[in-house]
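dumping the sequnces here before i forget
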Amino acid sequence: MPASVIPKALANAAAVDPTLIDRSRANAERLVAAIPRNHAPAEEPAHTYKADADQ
Amino acid sequence: MSPAPDADLGFMTIVEASRQIATGALSPVELMAAHLRRIEALGPRLDAFLLLDADKAMAGAKAAEQAIAAGRRLGPLHGIPFGLKDIVDTAGIRTTCHSKILKDNVPKTDAVVAARLKAAGAILVGKLATHEFALGGPAFDLPWPPARNPWNRDCHPGGSSSGSGAAIASGMLPMAIGTDTGGSVRNPASSCGIVGMKATYGRVSRAGVFPLSFSLDHIGPMTRTVADNALMLQAIAGPDAWDPASAAVSVPNFSSGIGKGVKGLQVGYLRHWHETDLPAHPDMAAGLDDAVAALADAGAVVKDVAFAPLAALAACNRVILVSEAYAIHRQWLTDRPGDYAKATRDRIMPGAFIAAADYIDALRQRGRYREQFKALMADLDVIVCASSMDPACRIDDTTEVDRTYGRQARTPFNLLGAPAIAVPTGFSEHGMPLSMQIVSRPFEEALIYRVADAYEQATDWTARRPPVC
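..and the predicted 3d for all of it:
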């Protein structure tokens, strides 16, 4: 999505704070970029788990 | 400014108050009255309470006194006052999440953690300030002001369980509940010089507590001493059918290691997080080194250990957190974004721009970190590492609050689900509390308490009181 496009659901938020969307998009990109990127296609994610005593 | 009244009762430990109540030397009514007088004196200075129910608290104290006198003492928390972070539901009592969005919200039932404390005989005094929805940060554009740090009311008390930290450190309450998704029990504990435990994920029921991030949320006890903290966790821990993530694990005696020392225990010192990953304030680093030396002097076997880079762990936590938080808040942010504080919008809204595949990658990475942590802990009893990298900054310095917000080492243990406690390690040059974390494998809270207690007994940090208190 081009940076200039504001999703409809965020229109009110953009009206309250005109730079919020751009700041949030940049923050999201920065966070995602910091996560290691070498996961195999079949690598299972860790789900919300029920912890047990032998972990 | 003169100190608040009743300091001896206000700063009495739960262990001691409980002992005196059991023998009849102290009445729950006397204890409650002292705390209410302190709240009256300190409340306007520290803004820790969003709601105070003094009449109901005093009625509860009278009922406790009668029950105990009649031989129906429920246990060590019977007659002990407590507070709840205002994201914890209370039947018939307003629960606002410190937000305009929920300013008129009155739950019908108690959260499980509130019900368990009441069942143990503890007496609810009031609801405590938080960062909005446990995330926003100290904000001045909400219906209520942010809590202040008792050690210096110009400073941030940490968050998001900020009112809990301020109330306990100032002797307005001996214990309170906080919640911790990215460190929000341990941050105010660190900033206010008290003890905060984030137990293992699933150890304490989240039912009835407003969620921030389902897979990272923890509920935790906050107190002034380690032994008190163990008593509080004892009352709230255990399986709960109302929480889908509740662990079906039996509850041990969390106080079993109190007083046993650390001789022979294997302690890993995870120093690269605060030395090279995010270099800590020199006072904080020195406090950590001194604490580890104290554990070694007490007989622990200490060695340096290494784990994944703090920045990658923090980003992984944050991607999951903002994704789940945005899912929770999406409708309100769509319909009424102006009713949030600016800081809250800033911190939740990135979740609108995280792709599902990136969220999945964060969960994949989380699985890897758990395996790495399990391997790391194979021959260790506990790890010692930083909590905050900096002492508390000024609460009205937005730039400094933002700069220090992420300079911490707590989020990894939300990601890992592992138990972690924050305990005081002294004071900075400017008189603000310093702290460390002690961490262990899932469900080893008793071991953490053992180590934390041994350190606490070797120092006098918990005996010190803020100047205004």
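The first strand of chain B starts at residue 49 and ends at 52.
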